[in-house]
Amino acid sequence: MDYFKIEGGFKLYRNGARVSIYAEIGSGAKIGSDAEIGSDAEIGSDAEIGNYAKIGSGAKIGSYAKIGSGAKIGSGAEIGSGAKIGSYAKIGSDAEIGNYAEIGSGAEIGSDAEIGNYAKIGSGAEIGSDAKFLFDLGYAEGYRKVLCSVKGTAYIGAGCRWFTLAEARAHWSVMPNRTVTMLLVELAERLAVHYKVK
């Protein structure tokens, strides 16, 4: 793919993509229509950047990674090889997404968060800043639930709320028809022991 002119520090392509003159694009990488690649960003070989996606300054996209249409990758974020970022997902600045991890459409991962290799984060899930993703507990009774840790404390995220394990048990145990959710809380408690978080 050849650009047709340089303007304002960007190489402009016929499909509307804008790539900083300081970005590095690996061989075989595909840049979608109207996508924007920031200064000092690195796009690995055979990676795919979707239409309207935005890659921040200094971000690193691994080889064979796929960034969905309209996704936003923050400055300094690192996306591992073979990772898949869904359409309209948002990855915060300096976040780290592991190799072959999958982030669902519309999910939001906060700044400085860490998502491990092969992890799967569902569509619409939210992982806060400084959080470390531990386990996707699944979808039950209206909300996807994930287990994360922040500074050594385990949290369950459900929708737009975060609970410590004790708060989660107290919150859902008094609600009728929350059998599956309570099973997920028990699973989270066991996983917290395994991951050595409290």
Give a nutshell description of this structure.
The chain is mainly β. The chain contains 2 helices and 25 strands. It folds into 2 domains: 1-127, 3 Solenoid (UDP N-Acetylglucosamine Acyltransferase, domain 1), CATH 2.160.10; 131-198, no CATH class.
The number of helical segments is: 2
The global form is elongated
Order of helices and strands: EEEEEEEEEEEEEEEEEEEEEEEEEHH
CATH superfamily of the largest domain: Hexapeptide repeat proteins
Helix content: 10-25%
Q: How far apart lie the N and C ends?
A: 51 Å
What integer value in Å does the Rg equal?
19 Å
- Uncertain runs are none
CATH topology heading of the largest domain = UDP N-Acetylglucosamine Acyltransferase, domain 1
What fraction of residues sit in β-strands?
Answer: 35-45%
Structural class: mainly beta
**How many structural domains can be distinguished in the coordinates?**
2
